[in-house]
Description:
Largest sheet: 8 strands, mixed
Number of strands: 8
Structural class: alpha/beta
Order of helices and strands: EEEHEHEHEHHHHHHHHEHHEHH
Number of helices: 15
Strand content: 15-25%
Amino acid sequence: MEGFASRHVDVGETQIFVRWAGTGPPLLLLHGFPQTHLMWRDVAPALARRFSVVCADLRGYGASGCPPSASDHAPYAKRSMARDMVRIMDALGFRRFFLAGHDRGGRVAYRLALDHAERTERLALLDILPTATVWERADARLALGYWPWSLLAQPAPLPERLVAAAPDAVVDAALGGWGTPANVFPTEVRSAYIDALRDARHVHAICEEYRAAAAIDRSHDEADRAAGKSIACPVCVLWSASGSLETWYADAGGPLALWHNWCSGGLEGQALDAGHFFPEERSQETAALLERFFLS
């Protein structure tokens, strides 16, 4: 990511690796699994023409730290990860900001918007539904198609040992299995994603993040829903036209219908003609849609 400055930011419990560049209103981009901030390598420079773009590795991922976990997995709850992001934006001098997250980063992003409404200007969620909703509607399609949800959430050390034994197979299965052509990922990027899974501390942290999604994250969603809490800022939902959100949830009205009750500040969105990793597959289209939404 040429032209982007980088540093580790101390957020108290750990250190978060960030890159940033550009001028204009601040925009934080959060990655998914099995990626790192490198997934924004083409989107971020395009957006940096109009925004102060910040790309962060979530705790446990990439070059960020791996704080000790706990029996309830709370250190890897999206609430904890969202708090990290608020602190790095503070460290960079940004009080309110735009926010976009893909996959796991999307879950951190909507939790940040719920817990820190005063910080979030606008929110874009890429190819996700609320965590509690996904688990409530889970079936054989989820268990087989999106295997990290169930596999990585198993008790330690089983998933850690499986991932550590073949990190290349894990990355290739993810990148090649959710509708995005393998040639979208350059050799050096694929290698970077694999290298990030070669470290035992990071593998354990990522598994803890999935365990949190199966437990404490669901509880946080359910508590907010019971209390009638919603996302107060405008929200844009983008999803893969060939993926699960387009087909599995048609009986419920699709992604916008399932997000509707969570979004009191306005909701819009559309499907993109691409696979799950559309920020890498259709980077310029993704950047253009995000720019339009955040500047509208």
